[in-house]
């Protein structure tokens, strides 16, 4: 039996709410499923994504193939990356922390945002010193 991790659509017309489920690939979109893994609400700002990481990893280990949208949601939560490292037999790097869809590497300040180290003199003192040097 081929298992897919995919979304089930719930909610009323034009107000979608999705459940992330593990289901037989032959089953209907909103039909029978094997296990509920979480939910996704695209109408909130930011979108509400709740996924049980252990259940998702369990199904990925068993060979379940995520749909494109499910893979995107799992990636946002860092579950796909964790599964890839596990598959390679490597531990997760400690410096990579996924929080609200932003990796720690992305949170580092750029060159323009880096804080310059403070000197012993204030900017006013530096200006007055350079002005004094120019007068001489």
CATH superfamily: Ribosomal protein S16
Q: DSSP helix count? A: 4
Contiguous low-pLDDT stretches (5 residues minimum) are: 101-107
What general outline do the C-alpha atoms trace?
flat
For the termini, the CA-CA separation is 88 Å
Mean pLDDT: 81
**Count of distinct structural domains:** 1
Please state the structural category: alpha+beta
| Helix-strand topology string | EEEEHEHHEEH
Number of strands: 7
Give your account of this protein's structure:
By secondary structure, the protein is of the alpha+beta class. It has one domain: Ribosomal protein S16 (S16 Ribosomal Protein, Chain: A), CATH 3.30.1320.10. Helix content is 30%, strand content 27%. The protein contains 4 helices and 7 strands. The strands form 2 sheets. It has a 5-stranded mixed sheet. The longest helix has 13 residues, at 123-135. The model is unreliable at 101-107 (pLDDT under 50).
How are the secondary structure elements laid out?
Elements: E1 3-12, E2 15-24, E3 35-41, E4 48-51, H1 53-61, E5 65-66, H2 68-76, H3 79-88, E6 98-99, E7 102-103, H4 123-135
Parallel strand pairs: 1-5
Antiparallel strand pairs: 1-2, 2-3, 3-4, 6-7
């Amino acid at each position: 039996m081929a298992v897919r991790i995919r979304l089930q659509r719930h909610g009323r017309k034009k107000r979608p709410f999705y459940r992330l489920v593990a289901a037989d690939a032959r089953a209907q979109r909103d039909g029978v499923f094997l296990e509920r893994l979480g939910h996704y609400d695209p109408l909130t700002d930011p979108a509400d994504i709740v996924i049980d990481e252990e259940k998702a990893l369990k199904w990925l280990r068993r060979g379940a193939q995520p749909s494109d949208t499910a893979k995107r949601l799992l990636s946002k939560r860092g579950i796909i990356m964790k599964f890839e490292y596990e598959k390679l037999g490597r531990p997760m790097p400690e410096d990579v922390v996924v929080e609200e869809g932003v990796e720690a590497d992305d949170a580092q300040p750029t060159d323009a945002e880096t804080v310059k180290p403070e000197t012993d003199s204030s900017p006013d003192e530096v200006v007055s010193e350079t002005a004094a040097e120019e007068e001489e």
